[in-house]
Design a protein that fits this description.
The protein is about 45% helix and about 10% strand. The chain has about 220 residues and is an alpha+beta fold. The chain has one domain: Glutaredoxin, CATH 3.40.30. A five-stranded mixed beta sheet has the order 1-3-2-4-5.
Length: about 220
């Protein structure tokens, strides 16, 4: 089990979901760094990941589909990271479910995994955040979940709905949530970039500085 991180100051990242005062960086010791790197799954064909399995930098993101700051990151920052680093083989992005806003969050996590069973996770991810964009928590009642699935191009909606009830999906969501809780994640989005934690929807420059520093360590 990885010891909980002090997200407010660790790694020189701001506090709070929208950021805050910067603090001096505190590099992890070698034991902690090894534990954080061990969280990287790097599984070939992982439907919840994008980028090369051997990329020098892995960004793990703990998110909730209802989170407005996750939506902001997806709209403002992630496309630029994909263009600049994922497509050039530098960065791999790995998703973790961290549903913290109640029953609708859990149902959306299940739906995302059901979409992944048909190879449409990232499409579901993008549509969900586009629909939920704003400054308040998004609402996803059942009819809206179906709308997201249709817009994401999930081909078999009957299978999609059946898969949402698969107990292994709930187990996988809980495994992700437990991983985040053990790290001390208490809000979303939260990121680990190799060994550096970043909390909140920080500007692009915050991610670029960490990625550039991490890519030369390998």
């Amino acid at each position: 089990m990885v010891a909980a991180l002090a997200w407010g100051t660790y790694g020189g990242r701001p506090t709070g979901s929208e950021g805050g005062q910067q603090h001096q960086a505190a590099a992890p010791d070698s034991g902690m760094a090894q534990q954080l790197r061990a969280l990287q799954r790097r599984q070939p064909g992982d439907p919840f990941a994008m980028g090369r399995t051997d990329a020098p930098v892995v960004l793990i993101k703990y998110e909730d589909f209802r989170c407005p700051f996750c939506s902001k990151f997806t709209a403002d920052v992630e496309p630029q990271l994909i263009e600049r680093y994922v497509r050039t083989g530098v960065l791999r992005i790995e998703w973790r479910d961290f549903p913290i806003f109640g029953a609708e969050s859990v149902e959306m996590a299940k739906a995302g995994r059901a979409a992944a069973h048909q190879g449409r996770f990232w499409q579901f991810h993008d549509i969900a955040y586009a629909m939920g964009g704003g400054t308040k928590k998004a609402s996803f009642p059942e009819e809206r979940i179906q709308e997201v699935a249709r817009e994401a191009g999930v081909p078999d909606l009957a299978k999609f709905n059946a898969d949402r009830a698969d107990p292994t999906i709930q187990q996988a969501i809980q495994a992700d949530a437990t991983e985040g809780q053990q790290l001390g994640v208490s809000s979303t989005p939260a990121f680990i970039v190799n060994t550096e934690p970043i909390l909140g929807a920080q500007p692009l420059e915050s991610f670029v500085s960490v990625i550039e520093a991490e890519r030369v360590k390998v």
